[in-house]
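Limitations

Structures in this collection are predictions, not experimental determinations, and the ligand pose is part of the prediction. Treat each record accordingly. The example that follows, with S-adenosyl-L-homocysteine as the small molecule, is included so readers can see exactly what is and is not provided: the inputs are given verbatim, and the output is the predicted complex.
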Amino acid sequence: MDWNDERQVDVFFKAHAGLRRQGPGNAETTQRALERVGALPKGARVIDLGCGPGASTVDLAQRLPDARVLGIDLHAPFVEELTESIRQHGLEARAHGTVGDMAAPPADAGPFDLMWSEGAAYAIGFERALSCWRPLLAPGGRIACSEAVWLSDERPPEVVANWEEYPEMTDRLGCLERAARAGLRLVSDFTLPESAWLEHYYDPMERTLEGLRTRYAGDDVALSVLEECQFEIDVYRRYSDVYGYQFFVFETA
Ligand code: SAH
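Predicted complex:
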């Protein structure tokens, strides 16, 4: 799709509206990654980069009861959703949302004991993201970050078409090499289960798409955007063994 076409972008955001998660991940995988991070200092500073509506931001604030958690995202409506969610959970004293670029996280809020990012680093490129974030890590700090990876050497044409906007996608080892170039080494990692893609992301998105197809009947531009979203879901259902998301926990090398 054409990201410079406002109408297409609008339909794309409508297809993604109301989803608690804007990428693969759920409470279980956030918890699992957090366990791999290990102990954090008292009053730890945590940042969730590309937080979207902030399901993980709120999760982190709840699971780390004395940490200060900041969610940052470029898309202001997502930050508004996060702020509302923080209020609903009574976390205003320790959790905040801010509109900003994850390539330049607010240095005055750091250094960070934990830099978190689910399904978002790809937006600026995995290696660039890690390189931007590492200088803001506190001594002994960790980066926990999920990233799309090839899980097999098979490259069916539909899968290649699905990922054409992210040609730099690599496999797990490729990610570790990029992390090493950014001055980081692996603490632990795991592959997200299929349920983490479907439960809060593709299943509810598919229900939204059904409604939008009726609403945009006869509007070829809008329908083609909806078709692309559906294509992404269909390809994942067929080829979840070919690509997936890997959750990495890194420390300074
Ligand atoms: N972590 C969230 C959202 C993942 S979708 C979740 O798992 O639900 C990717 C997010 O990255 C989107 O919310 C998008 O607005 C955000 N994003 C893309 N480029 C960004 C940038 N340069 N800086 C900050 N956020 C960005």
